[in-house]
Amino acid sequence: MAIAAAISLPLIAVKHRSRSPASSSLWFSSTSINPPKNLPSVGISAGCKSNLGVFSSMSAQAPAKASAASFLDHKESGILHFVKYHGLGNDFILVDNRDSEVPKITPEQAVKLCDRNFGIGADGVIFALPGINGTDYTMRIFNSDGSEPEMCGNGVRCFARFIAELENFHGNKSFNVHTGAGLIVPEIQEDGKVRVDMGQPILKASDVPTKLTANKDQAAVKAKLDVDGLIWNVTCVSMGNPHCVTFGTESCNDLQVDELNLAEIGPIFEHHAVFPARTNTEFVQVFSPSHLKMRVWERGAGATLACGTGACAVVVAAVLEGRADRRCTVDLPGGPLDIEWSESDNHIYMTGPAELVFYGSIPL
Fold first, then answer.
1. Cα(198)–Cα(152) distance, integer angstroms
2. Which pTM was predicted?
3. What is the pLDDT of residues 159-187, one digit of tens each?
4. CA distance linking residue 302 with residue 167, whole number of Å
5. Are 66 and 47 in contact (CB under 8 A)?
6. Rounded CA gap, 34 and 112, in Å?
7. Which residues are marked as active site?
8. What is the annotated signal peptide range for this record (predicted)?
9. What is the mean pLDDT of residues 214-232?
10. What's the count of helices (H) and strands (E) in the chain, helices before strands?
């Protein structure tokens, strides 16, 4: 696998990790990058053999074993060190911010870093901050548009793997994370997947929040939503962040999600007047009571390959509408997640992968 650094925000160094022993290469374009002078030596590798070509003003060394902790120990002024992870293609820039309660970059800088043509490219920037109120860590996120969501399911799995590498955790390990959605407890499993206790879903319509009228207890379930003259049946769920889940319209109750034009319809749902805090929207196709397929338009990020909180909301909505069991496999464009809505404690449990992509540094 080759990674090319050809961006106007000059990338200084990247470490790439491969699962296989096959060689990989990393190169820099001298026409696109202007590295600062007197840059200290940075190792460029991560557990795989690399062929490396760099500027003469830079030096590189390949450590026997690279880690996020050792890489992020570099403290050059004006340089942001980061690690890129993805959860089923939902990708994030992870920043070690454990030494401060204030994020190291601003939302405006996050927008630039997330740009896929002129920046690093990501759906958001995630900060690992000190824990508060008795928690081990705090997680904050800036979306690719600079907004700050309460939580992100794929992001918290990436966060868990990032913390495990920073702290050199091995085997099964769980910890408490403070988020804008409350306490979240991820557990790293022996197979490397992350199981996350996502807490209880919020169903009270006014707390989601939505202005749709509650029609089942205090929840909006299969409520009618007029979107540009077309009536959709929607169920509203909050996983600490708002979700609008639909299985179809009044005239078509069997969505074929691959046929949807998300770029056209997604923003209309997101900014609909009945969602005062905007909303994430999940379009769902039912294969069986234990197998669902979804596409998502995320608030602040647009169409993404996966949304963990969205998959949780989908299962809750499917159960409330009598379409599915409490344990389901949810297929997303980036791959499947296992979701369980436990009857015993009313908590949602999400299990899925999180993968390291590369290490990097960039001037701010």
1. 10
2. 0.80
3. 999 999 999 998 889 999 999 999 999 99
4. 33
5. yes
6. 17
7. 152, 307
8. none
9. 96
10. 5, 24
